[in-house]
Write a structure and sequence with these properties.
By secondary structure, this protein is mainly α. It has one domain. Helix content is 76%, strand content 0%. It contains 10 helices and no strands. α1 packs antiparallel against α6 and α4 runs parallel beside α7.
Length: 258
C-alpha cells in the first residue's frame, strides 16, 4: 500500500494544483508564473543530483575511479530519450503559437496538455526506478529516500497543475474541463512509474544506469522547456529566486530525510 501511495503522490500534487481553478482567478500573474517555473526547475535539478545521480555513482563505487561511467552513460541515454520524444510527439509549449513535433490536427489545448504530459514522463520514471531499487533491497535506497523523491516531485507538480488549468480557464473553457485537462496532464506519471516498477527485475541489475537515465530525462525537460519559459523576456530575478528556493527545499528534504 505504501508503494502505491509513493507512486501516486506526484499525480496527487498535479491534481491539487489543477484544482486551484475552482478557487482562484482565471489567470496567473506573469511574475508568479515565472517564480513557479523557476521553483519547479530547482526541485527537478536537485532531485536529479541528490536522489538519482549521486546514488548512481555510489552504487558503482566498486569500479573505483570509473564509478562515474554508469552515471554518464545513463545520463546521456536519458537526454537522447526525451530528445526523441520531443521530435515524435506533437505538442505546444505555453505562450507559444507554433507547435513542435509532426504536423497534426489536434487542438492547441490538447497539444498544450501533451507538452506537459511529455515532461511528466521522466518524473514518473524517476519515482518508479527508485521504488524498483527499493524492491530489489538495494542498500543505497531507503523507503524514506524513495518517498522524499516522490514528495519533492509532488511539490513541484502542484504549481504545474495550476499553470495548466488556470490559463485554460482564461481561454474560455469551463472550470470542470480546465481542471480535467490539468489533472490528466499528470496521469502519465503513475503510469510511467508503474510500468517502470513492473520492470524491477531488469532494473535492479542495472540500477545505476536507470537512475542516471531518469536524471538525464528530467534535466532535459528543465533545460529545454521550463527554464526558457521562466526566463523569456521581462524581469528574470523572480525566476532565479524561485529556482533557488526549489533547489534548496529539495536538497534539504533529501539530505535531512533521505
Amino acid at each position: 500500500m505504501e508503494y502505491l501511495l509513493g507512486l501516486l503522490l506526484p499525480f496527487i500534487g498535479t491534481t491539487l494544483g489543477a484544482g486551484c481553478v475552482f478557487f482562484m482567478k482565471n489567470t496567473i500573474k506573469d511574475s508568479i508564473q515565472r517564480a513557479l517555473l523557476g521553483f519547479a526547475s530547482g526541485v527537478m535539478i536537485a532531485a536529479s543530483v541528490w536522489s538519482l545521480l549521486i546514488p548512481s555513482i555510489n552504487m558503482s563505487e566498486s569500479m573505483g575511479k570509473f564509478s562515474f561511467v554508469p552515471a554518464v552513460i545513463g545520463f546521456f541515454i536519458g537526454i537522447a530519450f526525451l530528445f526523441l520524444l520531443d521530435r515524435i510527439i506533437p505538442h505546444l509549449h505555453m505562450n507559444e503559437n507554433k507547435p513542435e513535433g509532426p504536423k497534426t490536427s489536434l487542438s492547441n489545448t490538447l497539444m498544450l496538455v501533451l507538452a506537459v504530459t511529455l515532461h511528466n514522463i521522466p518524473e514518473g520514471m524517476a519515482v518508479g526506478v527508485v521504488f524498483a531499487g527499493l524492491l530489489g533491497d538495494n542498500a543505497n535506497i531507503s523507503i524514506t529516500s524513495a518517498f522524499v523523491l516522490s514528495i519533492g516531485i509532488a511539490i513541484q507538480n502542484f504549481p504545474e497543475g495550476a499553470i495548466i488549468s488556470l490559463p485554460l480557464r482564461g481561454e474560455g473553457n469551463s472550470k470542470k474541463k480546465s481542471f480535467t485537462y490539468g489533472m490528466l496532464s499528470g496521469i502519465v506519471e503513475p503510469i510511467a512509474a508503474g510500468i517502470t516498477l513492473l520492470m524491477s527485475n531488469v532494473i535492479s541489475s542495472a540500477l545505476p544506469y536507470f537512475l542516471s537515465f531518469a536524471a538525464g530525462a528530467m534535466i532535459y525537460v528543465v533545460i529545454e522547456e521550463l527554464l526558457p519559459e521562466a526566463y523569456k523576456e521581462g524581469n528574470t530575478d523572480i525566476s532565479t529566486w524561485g529556482f533557488a528556493f526549489g533547489f534548496a527545499i529539495m536538497m534539504v528534504l533529501d539530505v535531512a530525510l533521505g
